[in-house]
Amino acid sequence: MTLYVLDSDHLSLHQRGYEPLKPYLLTIPPDQIGITIISVEELIRGRLAQVRRAVQPEERVKAYYWLTRTFEFLKGFQVLTYDATAEIHFQSLLSQKLRIGMQDLKIAATVLSQNAILVTRNRKDFEKVPQLKMVDWASEE
User: Fold this and answer.
1) Tell me, what CATH number does 94's domain have?
2) How confident is the model over 89-110, as pLDDT tens digits?
3) How does strand 117-119 pair with strand 133-135?
4) How far apart are CA 60 and CA 46, in angstroms?
5) pLDDT band, residue 127 (cuts 50/70/90)
6) CA gap 10, 119 in Å, rounded
7) Cα distance between residue 53 and residue 71, in whole Å
8) pLDDT category, 3, cuts 50, 70, 90?
9) pTM for the complete prediction?
10) Does residue 69 form part of some domain?
11) Which residue range is the domain that position 95 belongs to?
12) Which residues is 79 bridged to in the sheet?
């Protein structure tokens, strides 16, 4: 069974109802689509930043609305944990001195630890990771 792991970019597109993703999300069984806890962290951090920045009552209500909606949205996914195997992959990637961000390295390490396929638009960074399999479902081609 192939496991597809949505990167944060695809997760955000999915949350906004981006049309090109729908054929994939409708045809691939839900148990074959997952997200990393790293992407969950990124999404929640973004929503919490909105809450912190909200000073006007309407902004605060809207920020908490989106925080709630994000938690509800995330419940529908299999969340891949960052475990000892992912950490081993992460340390290996760090030792290779790849020039990509720490969060992306953790996502790649988690995907590698699951022998999964990363679903991302960020080829520029992730193609630097040896043996990482990738696809892009967001392309309208």
Assistant:
1) 3.40.50.1010
2) 999 999 999 999 999 999 999 9
3) parallel
4) 14
5) very high
6) 7
7) 19
8) very high
9) 0.90
10) no
11) 4-36+79-135
12) 35
